[in-house]
Automatic annotation (TrEMBL):
UniProt xrefs under InterPro entries: HAD-like_hydrolase_sf, HAD-like_sf, HAD_2, HAD_sf
Signal peptide residue numbers: none
Origin species: Candidatus Sysuiplasma superficiale
GO molecular function list: phosphoglycolate phosphatase activity
The protein's name in its UniProt record: HAD family phosphatase
Domain of life: Archaea
Length: 224
Protein backbone atom coordinates (compact mmCIF):
# COMPACT_ATOMS: atom_id res chain seq x y z
CA UNK A 1 0.00 0.00 0.00
CA UNK A 2 1.31 3.43 -0.92
CA UNK A 3 2.39 5.96 1.70
CA UNK A 4 -0.58 8.21 2.39
CA UNK A 5 -0.66 11.48 4.28
CA UNK A 6 -4.34 12.36 3.70
CA UNK A 7 -7.67 10.52 3.77
CA UNK A 8 -11.06 11.60 2.43
CA UNK A 9 -13.85 9.72 4.17
CA UNK A 10 -17.53 9.41 3.41
CA UNK A 11 -19.61 9.51 6.59
CA UNK A 12 -23.01 7.78 6.64
CA UNK A 13 -22.80 4.04 5.84
CA UNK A 14 -19.01 4.31 5.74
CA UNK A 15 -18.06 5.44 9.26
CA UNK A 16 -21.49 5.46 10.89
CA UNK A 17 -24.91 3.99 10.20
CA UNK A 18 -28.02 6.16 10.16
CA UNK A 19 -30.06 3.70 8.07
CA UNK A 20 -32.24 2.60 10.98
CA UNK A 21 -32.33 6.05 12.53
CA UNK A 22 -33.90 7.95 9.62
CA UNK A 23 -37.18 7.33 7.80
CA UNK A 24 -35.62 7.84 4.38
CA UNK A 25 -38.83 7.06 2.52
CA UNK A 26 -40.73 9.81 4.32
CA UNK A 27 -37.76 12.11 3.83
CA UNK A 28 -37.80 11.38 0.09
CA UNK A 29 -41.52 12.10 -0.16
CA UNK A 30 -41.06 15.40 1.67
CA UNK A 31 -38.08 16.45 -0.44
CA UNK A 32 -39.93 15.62 -3.64
CA UNK A 33 -42.99 17.60 -2.51
CA UNK A 34 -40.97 20.69 -1.66
CA UNK A 35 -38.97 20.54 -4.89
CA UNK A 36 -42.16 20.36 -6.96
CA UNK A 37 -43.70 23.22 -4.99
CA UNK A 38 -40.60 25.27 -5.79
CA UNK A 39 -40.66 24.78 -9.58
CA UNK A 40 -38.36 21.77 -9.90
CA UNK A 41 -39.77 19.04 -12.12
CA UNK A 42 -39.08 15.72 -10.40
CA UNK A 43 -40.10 12.87 -12.67
CA UNK A 44 -37.81 10.21 -11.19
CA UNK A 45 -39.40 7.51 -9.05
CA UNK A 46 -36.20 7.40 -7.01
CA UNK A 47 -37.15 8.42 -3.49
CA UNK A 48 -33.57 8.64 -2.23
CA UNK A 49 -33.68 12.26 -1.06
CA UNK A 50 -30.05 13.10 -1.83
CA UNK A 51 -30.49 11.77 -5.37
CA UNK A 52 -33.56 13.95 -5.80
CA UNK A 53 -31.66 17.01 -4.61
CA UNK A 54 -28.69 16.30 -6.84
CA UNK A 55 -30.73 15.73 -9.99
CA UNK A 56 -33.41 18.37 -9.47
CA UNK A 57 -31.33 21.27 -10.81
CA UNK A 58 -31.44 19.66 -14.26
CA UNK A 59 -35.20 20.19 -14.28
CA UNK A 60 -35.49 23.65 -12.77
CA UNK A 61 -38.39 25.61 -14.24
CA UNK A 62 -38.24 28.50 -11.80
CA UNK A 63 -36.48 31.89 -11.92
CA UNK A 64 -32.71 31.23 -12.22
CA UNK A 65 -31.82 33.92 -9.72
CA UNK A 66 -33.78 32.22 -6.96
CA UNK A 67 -32.55 28.67 -7.55
CA UNK A 68 -30.37 28.47 -4.45
CA UNK A 69 -33.09 29.76 -2.16
CA UNK A 70 -35.72 27.44 -3.60
CA UNK A 71 -33.42 24.43 -3.55
CA UNK A 72 -32.36 25.11 0.04
CA UNK A 73 -35.96 24.75 1.19
CA UNK A 74 -35.90 21.10 0.19
CA UNK A 75 -32.36 20.56 1.44
CA UNK A 76 -33.26 22.14 4.77
CA UNK A 77 -36.25 19.84 5.19
CA UNK A 78 -34.03 16.83 4.56
CA UNK A 79 -31.66 18.19 7.18
CA UNK A 80 -34.46 17.94 9.74
CA UNK A 81 -34.61 14.19 9.14
CA UNK A 82 -30.82 13.86 9.17
CA UNK A 83 -30.51 15.70 12.47
CA UNK A 84 -33.00 13.29 14.02
CA UNK A 85 -30.94 10.42 12.67
CA UNK A 86 -27.76 11.94 14.09
CA UNK A 87 -29.17 11.44 17.58
CA UNK A 88 -29.58 7.68 17.04
CA UNK A 89 -26.82 6.78 14.59
CA UNK A 90 -24.19 4.25 15.63
CA UNK A 91 -20.53 3.96 14.71
CA UNK A 92 -19.82 1.08 12.36
CA UNK A 93 -17.77 -1.81 13.71
CA UNK A 94 -14.10 -0.95 13.65
CA UNK A 95 -14.69 2.76 13.11
CA UNK A 96 -12.63 4.05 16.01
CA UNK A 97 -9.92 1.47 15.43
CA UNK A 98 -9.65 2.66 11.83
CA UNK A 99 -9.58 6.34 12.80
CA UNK A 100 -6.93 5.64 15.45
CA UNK A 101 -4.75 3.89 12.86
CA UNK A 102 -5.00 6.95 10.61
CA UNK A 103 -4.09 9.25 13.47
CA UNK A 104 -1.17 7.11 14.68
CA UNK A 105 0.25 7.15 11.15
CA UNK A 106 -0.15 10.93 10.86
CA UNK A 107 -2.76 10.62 8.10
CA UNK A 108 -4.93 13.74 8.08
CA UNK A 109 -8.60 12.84 7.74
CA UNK A 110 -11.37 14.90 6.17
CA UNK A 111 -15.06 14.04 5.81
CA UNK A 112 -16.74 14.48 2.43
CA UNK A 113 -20.46 13.86 2.85
CA UNK A 114 -23.72 14.56 1.05
CA UNK A 115 -25.48 14.94 4.40
CA UNK A 116 -26.05 18.37 5.93
CA UNK A 117 -23.35 19.90 8.10
CA UNK A 118 -25.32 20.20 11.32
CA UNK A 119 -26.21 16.49 11.28
CA UNK A 120 -22.59 15.45 10.65
CA UNK A 121 -21.29 17.67 13.45
CA UNK A 122 -23.99 16.55 15.87
CA UNK A 123 -23.41 12.88 15.12
CA UNK A 124 -19.62 13.09 15.23
CA UNK A 125 -19.70 14.99 18.52
CA UNK A 126 -22.22 12.63 20.12
CA UNK A 127 -20.19 9.56 19.14
CA UNK A 128 -16.92 11.16 20.22
CA UNK A 129 -15.17 11.17 16.85
CA UNK A 130 -15.22 14.85 15.91
CA UNK A 131 -11.56 15.40 16.84
CA UNK A 132 -10.40 12.82 14.32
CA UNK A 133 -11.38 15.12 11.44
CA UNK A 134 -9.37 18.13 10.33
CA UNK A 135 -12.06 19.22 7.88
CA UNK A 136 -15.70 18.43 7.11
CA UNK A 137 -17.25 19.20 3.71
CA UNK A 138 -20.99 18.63 3.36
CA UNK A 139 -23.75 19.46 0.89
CA UNK A 140 -24.23 22.78 2.68
CA UNK A 141 -20.92 23.89 1.16
CA UNK A 142 -21.41 22.46 -2.34
CA UNK A 143 -25.23 22.56 -2.68
CA UNK A 144 -26.36 20.39 -5.61
CA UNK A 145 -22.76 19.76 -6.73
CA UNK A 146 -22.51 16.68 -4.52
CA UNK A 147 -20.56 13.52 -5.29
CA UNK A 148 -19.95 12.22 -7.94
CA UNK A 149 -19.22 15.87 -8.75
CA UNK A 150 -15.60 16.59 -7.87
CA UNK A 151 -16.32 19.83 -6.00
CA UNK A 152 -16.56 18.35 -2.46
CA UNK A 153 -13.41 16.30 -3.00
CA UNK A 154 -11.45 19.30 -4.24
CA UNK A 155 -12.73 21.47 -1.38
CA UNK A 156 -11.72 18.88 1.20
CA UNK A 157 -8.28 18.42 -0.35
CA UNK A 158 -7.66 22.15 -0.43
CA UNK A 159 -8.76 22.54 3.18
CA UNK A 160 -6.18 20.02 4.45
CA UNK A 161 -3.46 20.71 1.89
CA UNK A 162 -3.73 17.24 0.35
CA UNK A 163 -2.07 16.14 -2.87
CA UNK A 164 -3.72 13.47 -5.03
CA UNK A 165 -0.69 11.18 -5.11
CA UNK A 166 -0.62 10.99 -1.29
CA UNK A 167 -4.37 10.80 -0.70
CA UNK A 168 -6.89 7.98 -0.56
CA UNK A 169 -10.66 8.06 -0.36
CA UNK A 170 -12.99 5.57 1.34
CA UNK A 171 -16.70 5.27 0.60
CA UNK A 172 -19.59 2.83 0.39
CA UNK A 173 -21.10 4.09 -2.85
CA UNK A 174 -20.31 4.16 -6.54
CA UNK A 175 -20.63 7.95 -6.44
CA UNK A 176 -17.81 8.09 -3.87
CA UNK A 177 -15.52 5.97 -6.01
CA UNK A 178 -16.23 8.00 -9.13
CA UNK A 179 -15.58 11.29 -7.36
CA UNK A 180 -12.30 10.06 -5.86
CA UNK A 181 -11.12 8.66 -9.18
CA UNK A 182 -11.96 11.86 -11.05
CA UNK A 183 -9.69 13.75 -8.65
CA UNK A 184 -6.85 11.21 -9.04
CA UNK A 185 -7.30 10.11 -5.42
CA UNK A 186 -6.78 6.40 -4.72
CA UNK A 187 -10.33 5.02 -4.36
CA UNK A 188 -11.11 2.40 -1.71
CA UNK A 189 -14.57 0.97 -1.19
CA UNK A 190 -16.32 -0.61 1.77
CA UNK A 191 -19.27 -2.98 1.70
CA UNK A 192 -22.46 -2.82 3.73
CA UNK A 193 -23.66 0.48 2.31
CA UNK A 194 -25.23 1.73 -0.90
CA UNK A 195 -23.25 -0.36 -3.39
CA UNK A 196 -22.11 -3.96 -3.62
CA UNK A 197 -18.50 -5.05 -3.80
CA UNK A 198 -18.82 -5.78 -7.53
CA UNK A 199 -20.38 -2.37 -8.17
CA UNK A 200 -17.58 -0.65 -6.28
CA UNK A 201 -14.90 -2.52 -8.21
CA UNK A 202 -16.67 -1.82 -11.51
CA UNK A 203 -16.70 1.89 -10.62
CA UNK A 204 -12.92 1.82 -10.19
CA UNK A 205 -12.18 0.91 -6.56
CA UNK A 206 -8.65 -0.49 -6.21
CA UNK A 207 -9.72 -2.51 -3.17
CA UNK A 208 -12.99 -3.08 -1.34
CA UNK A 209 -12.94 -3.76 2.40
CA UNK A 210 -15.53 -5.93 4.11
CA UNK A 211 -15.39 -3.77 7.23
CA UNK A 212 -13.56 -0.87 8.84
CA UNK A 213 -11.75 -3.39 11.02
CA UNK A 214 -10.33 -5.01 7.90
CA UNK A 215 -9.33 -1.59 6.60
CA UNK A 216 -7.65 -0.79 9.93
CA UNK A 217 -5.76 -4.10 9.91
CA UNK A 218 -4.52 -3.53 6.37
CA UNK A 219 -3.35 0.03 6.96
CA UNK A 220 -1.71 -1.03 10.21
CA UNK A 221 0.15 -3.93 8.59
CA UNK A 222 1.39 -1.80 5.69
CA UNK A 223 2.46 1.17 7.79
CA UNK A 224 3.42 -0.43 11.06
Amino acid sequence: MAAYSSALLDFDLTLVDMSDAVDWRSAGIEVRRILVENSFEVSSLDLLPVSLLRESVNFDRGPPGSRRERWMRASGRLCDFEEEGAEKAVANEGCFEFLEVLRSNLITAAVTSSNCRSAIIRCAERLGMINFFSSIVTRDEVLWEMKPNTKPIKMAMKSIGARPENTFGLGDSVVDIRAFSACMVTPFGITGGMSTSDELYDAGAVKVFASLKQAADEFRSRTG
